[in-house]
Amino acid sequence: MRKVPNAVLNAIVLHTTGIAILALAFPLAALANLSGTPTLSANMALSLDTGTTSSSGGDVLWSGAMMTPQGKATAYSLGPVGSSAFAVFTQSTLSSFGPLYTSAAIPASTLVVGEVFAVHTNGGNYAAVLVTAVSGSSITLQFTTFGVNSGPTITAVQNNYGNIPAGFANSGIAQGALAQIYGTGLSNTPTAQITSLQSPSAAGGLPTSLNGATVKVTSGGTTVTPAFYYAGNTVMAVVLPSNTPVGTAQMTVTYNGQTSAPFSFQVVQSTMGFDTYGGTPEIVAQNPLTGALYSYASSVPPGAEVAFWGSGLGADPAVDTTAVPGAFNKNGLAHVYVGGVDAPIAYQGESGPGYPGVDEVFVTIPMGVPTGCNVSVVGVSASGVPTNFTTMPIGNGPCSDPVYGITGAQLTSLSSQTNVANGTVLLEISTSPATSGSGTTTNDIAVASFQSYTGYTFGSTSGLVSLGGCTVNQTVSSSGSSGTTTGLDAGTIKVSGPGLSSTTLMSEAPFLAGFYEAQLAAGSLSSGTYTFTGSGGANVGPFTAMITFPNPPLTWTNQAAAATVMRSAGLPVTWTGGATGTYVEIGGNSSSSSGSAFGSFTCIAPVSAGSFTVPSYVLAALPAGMGSVTVENETNFSSFTATGLNNGFAAGFVAVEVNSTYN
């Protein structure tokens, strides 16, 4: 087993987390407004910081005859201003009363229905309190305490590298793997600071408490304490102990004496997640002999051995917190497919010497593998469960994807920019199921999109995958997105061509800024060359773009096969026709019965192949449920230029969609 320099490992772990080296714009603790409607009997105290009542302490004590501030708390009576005034008080308003707060008691004669008093609490918060009822020695209050430290909250637990959300077959945390915990109020620092990375074996190894936080996991009646790599206010990374029982587990985070509600997740024997760049699908691929990292500018040559990094191959109890002394085979993967080709696995297991929870996989790139800038890479277990779906550049020197008209040099340049202004114009003939539930409808559409992308996300989040491969996207209803996009104003856009007089595309702004669309008359589009012209707008200058529409049209010859998709069997797709030199894009999607999990796939094949089978490991990454399958013939992308744009693409396609049930 070849040793990998620690400096390389450090860079990989730091780069993987991304957040670990960026300051996060979050408060030190999760803040929220706390509300309640307690009824106090005589000699009962109320804590406005927690909403709890007791016989003593708290912030105010109701004796039956007066309301007295307790401890360091102070109060100020605002008079019988009523519920409408109570509703508009803010933290800023209450704090502005400053010197009016005193420790003096408020007499019962003042505390009538509609009375409002303010409290500066022992916890340093401000509360507005409304009297809603008085009966004998009892008093009922309505209160809002502003900016309360609500304690830690867990919102997601995912593999530190794969980041597959819950609800999919390839989600869950493997025994001994790095788990990334997302939430609020998780620790006392806004930044996720790497700890003990340089020497995890020093001082007993990785710590089980960091930045004031600890984590507990209970599964199968066993409670374990994970060790930290880093801990921030909104994200932390820990090593799940290898002796954690497989099954449904409950995780809690304790910080500042407060413990989060238990968060449920699945512990599994093995579910590998590959390391990618900055949250994009581009996998971190390394030359194991030189330690150099491959890139768009320096792609992986066919026949080379390459090292991938990640976590989740399986348990290794000896190294949950201390440095890995040497190689340790785990063999959690049965295959690694590169561009759809099975690549021989030379080694898979703990990095050696390396770091707790960090795994590496060595594969040899087959000589017959497709080349391109976004060649698909995915590992698959013996039971057919895939890793996260990634891509990497394969070729000699800078990569090249003629289908998309883009090179590694362009991607390197664009991805290094802060923002990339991209323009796309499309012509589409789409046939899809009618909304009435029977028959089909065919639409001719012209579409344009002008968007500014965060630079680092541009290359491998464009949704493109090189010929011969497949990619998968998995989201849940609460998922966010990486990077940002901003719509660009391109002015007035028109399209004309055979059978189509000059037609203006309508802007979707302000609802979808930068998007333009024109619904064309049925049968408007046919073979031939069409021209888009843009007048230029606030962000994009005038342009002209050309699209030569496919001829002859492609015919999907086995549509019936997609009505019911057996995910464990793969999906064969066959076709005839299609313009010479173009390609076929096969896509599909499904939603879980609850609607919370949504998965989609895209596969690319040359039109000359006449058929393509969507692999079972691709379909395994989608949830069982209802969805669709689409087959479309796309022209090769052509380019256009305009001031204000870094990149411009134009293409035409013919698409057919059918409703599908995924079993």
Class of secondary structure makeup: mainly beta
The biggest beta sheet, please?
15 strands, mixed
N-C termini distance: 42 Å
Number of strands: 53
Q: What is the mean predicted local confidence, pLDDT?
A: 86
State the helix count.
Answer: 6
Structure report:
Helix content is 6%, strand content 45%. With 663 residues, the protein is mainly β. The chain folds into 3 domains: 1-29 and 151-295 and 305-366, Sandwich (Immunoglobulin-like), CATH 2.60.40.10; 31-149, no CATH class; 402-662, no CATH class. The strands form 9 sheets. The protein has a 15-stranded mixed beta sheet that branches. Strands 13, 16, 17, 18, 21, 22 and 23 form a 7-stranded mixed beta sheet that branches. Strands 1, 2, 7, 9, 10 and 11 form a 6-stranded antiparallel beta sheet that branches. The two termini are 42 Å apart.
List keywords for this structure.
663 residues; mainly beta; 3 domains; 15-stranded mixed beta sheet; 7-stranded mixed beta sheet; 6 helices; 6% helix; 45% strand; disordered N terminus
Outline of this structure?
This protein has about 675 residues and is mostly beta strands. The protein contains six helices and 53 strands.
